[in-house]
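Researcher: Next sequence.
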Amino acid sequence: MALALLFGSAFLIGLTGAAMPGPMLSVTLERTARYGWFAGPIIVLGHALLELALIVAIIFGFGHILSSQTFTGLFGIFGGAFLFWMGFGVVRDAAGVSLPKVDLANHGGDQPPWRRVPMVTALFGATTSLSNPYWLLWWGSVGAGYVAIALQLGFPGVLAFFLGHISADFGWYTLMAYLMDKSGNLLPQSVLTWLLRILGLFLIIFAGYFVWTGAHNLLELKIAGG
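Model: Next structure:
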């Protein structure tokens, strides 16, 4: 019963975070437009592997480092620069991207959905997460506290927490990618182009905010240190 509650609460909290619009959603939709709906779970796979490594780090006592101003400040600046580069590329290439048209007779042709997505796409999930200082801050505070609770039930507790948390991400982003992909027969090219440009602009806005936040954290540290 305790494991079920841990799984369920981790799922609901993870779903709340996943459903909030942010860089991961923008990247997921943009990659889906290029490769089809299976880009969604592939992106989350990279995100999940990174979070698994983070949980291991927290177990070994590195949770306080993740929430430190220095750490989040540096990752805010470098991560923001990465997001700006990504967003600029999306805006620049938007006109050349088209959604795959869905053949309702054979569900998208002879090639399986997973064969259309290069595995390097998983890196976008990991790098997009790392670019967000608030993701690191969440794991250094709320996430670390959750892991501490899960550890009271041993390895099964940590596993239940991780599976509950990551199931929310897989479920939400796969659904968003699937809906995006299956609109390929209905979405005019001009609408897709402007949608991608808007998503790219969102990434650029996030980039500016992350760089500003990172620089602000580092400046506060400098002032506090004299």
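Model: Confidence is low (pLDDT under 50) at residues 102-109. The chain has one domain: 2-224.
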